[in-house]
Design brief:
alpha/beta; Rossmann fold; seven-stranded mixed beta sheet; 8 helices; globular; binds glycinamide ribonucleotide
């Protein structure tokens, strides 16, 4: 029997729905990367951000989530490190990819094991340089400046049990001019983040 237009349309929507990747963003700060990812994928049929989670109740990224009507979750020691509650929530949401966008807590081993090659992080330096505990945000750019580097950049990598050590997915570089201070370096690196992070995410969907 010939399908009615109504049912073939719903099959179509169902099929398309099945290919839309479900993404969770974890962030600790202002959320400029999260905002940029949301604007890049606005109206996209490739991915949907189904959760924005933060370990800080005052993080700007939660305001961004509210503006986009995206569900949020506060990450605590209890649900993140001392139990599998957060993992269970991600599984219940059928999350395909977890994106760390300025997320400053170490990801517990249990979470890495539950989502192998499905958690990525952006780091504002050319790893393995200037990574590891305590190396985040402006501390990275201060260190790059103090060392007199002539280039810096971004690294997008899979997350493993160690800070900033998982397999590298992509790196992009920028030159540092002799009169660039740490702030100027940060601005150049942030421009790379805005340009490349969504594109790299897209390449992984
Ligand atoms: C970004 O520069 C990101 O690369 C960095 O934190 C900033 C978050 O900014 N991440 C790290 O340093 C991770 N070690 P945002 O909240 O405005 O996106």
């Amino acid at each position: 029997m010939k399908k009615s237009t109504g049912s073939s349309l719903s099959v179509d929507i169902l099929l398309r729905k099945n290919t839309v990747k479900r993404v969770a963003i974890l962030a600790s700060g202002a959320g400029s990367n999260a905002a940029n990812i949301l604007s890049y994928f606005k109206g996209s049929d490739k991915m949907e951000v189904v959760l924005i989670a933060s370990n800080r109740s005052d993080a700007g990224v939660l305001d961004i989530a509210a503006r986009h009507a995206i569900p949020t979750q506060l990450i605590t020691k209890e649900n993140f490190r001392l139990s599998n509650d957060f993992i269970d929530e991600l599984k219940a949401l059928k999350v395909d990819l977890i994106v760390l966008a300025g997320f400053l807590w170490k990801v517990p081993a249990a979470m890495v094991q539950h989502f192998p090659q499905r958690i990525i992080n952006i780091h504002p330096s050319l790893l393995p340089k200037y990574g590891g505990k305590g190396m985040y945000g402006h501390f990275v750019h201060d260190a790059v400046f103090a060392a007199g580097e002539t280039e810096s950049g971004i690294t997008i990598h899979y997350v493993n049990e160690q800070y900033d050590e998982g397999a590298i997915v992509a790196q992009h570089k920028v030159s540092i001019a002799s009169d660039d201070d740490a702030h100027a370096i940060e601005m150049k690196v942030r421009a790379l983040e805005m340009e490349w992070f969504p594109k790299v995410i897209e390449s992984l969907l």
